[in-house]
Amino acid sequence: MPALAETQVAAYRRDGFLCPVDVFTPAEAQQLRAELEAHEALHPSRGLKRDIAQYQRVNAHVVMETARRVAAERRILDAVESLLGPDLMVWSCEYFIKEPHTTKVVSWHQDLTYWGMDGSDHEVTAWIALSPATEASGCMRFVPGSHGQALVPHRDTFAEDNLLSRGQEIAVEVDEADAVVAALNPGQMSLHHGRLFHASGPNVTDDRRIGLVVRYIRPDTPSTGVGRDYAMLVRGCDRTLGRINMVPPSGDFSPAAIALYEEILAAQSATLSDGAEGGVSLYAEA
Ligand SMILES: O=C(O)CCC(=O)C(=O)O
């Protein structure tokens, strides 16, 4: 039984997003946050060559059990199945964290611009709040219906206070007056389409703004990047074998998981850095 009502599916198709959707209880969200913060505290003693921020921002599900568990969470998959159908893969898992009083922002962009999936309709992002995501803490803003157009040109800014990998922004004018605020309580999620215009502002509050982002695709989503791509099957079947279908080794930051992490990063870096006017540090060799 699909988890989203027909009216919710219709709203997603019309607007390119759905928000808010209840997934976790506040206590569950608090537990997920505690697990993330335990990793942050432990990281210096692990002796790994990359910062925790790198593992959080790129393919966190490969090395962190918490992210993997959330990515395979039945309540999220039921909702995503209503939009994408019964066969679901996780392409990426990322923690988007804004520290208290940070000036870091996310500029207006369309996710699909750099993913090597063309402008596919066969993906959806679940953004799950692990702390209050409000206008003051820098929650996302969406331009309803903007997913209805093709991918528009973007330019790289590499701006210091931009959280995106290359500070990319839409090169055409986006009218802020058209945007809606996607506020979420801890445990709620938004679902958004990869062609949707979206952005987020600074965090002027005393608490961290923590989003756990899971990017779901259908197995038949085009893979048009430079090299082979990877994904993790979480429901149904992959009858296409369009991507390398992987199950990360169990345990947190195990040597096997780190090795797989590096393999995937190396393979994806060509696509995700393609055309950049400078180095994209999130996809660089350690
Ligand atoms: O967390 C944010 O503020 C932006 C996240 C985002 O751009 C995305 O999930 O596609």
UniProtKB/TrEMBL annotation:
Which species is the source of this protein? Thermohalobaculum xanthum
In terms of superkingdom, the source organism counts as Bacteria
Task: Tell me the protein's name.
Answer: Phytanoyl-CoA dioxygenase family protein
Identify the cofactor(s).
Answer: Fe(2+)
Quote the InterPro entries the UniProt record gives: Phytyl_CoA_dOase-like
Q: Which GO terms describe its molecular function?
A: 2-oxoglutarate-dependent dioxygenase activity; iron ion binding
The top of its lineage is: Bacteria, Pseudomonadati, Pseudomonadota, Alphaproteobacteria, Rhodobacterales
Pfam hit, one: PhyH
Entry keywords, A to Z: Dioxygenase, Oxidoreductase
Among its keywords, does the record have Oxidoreductase?
yes
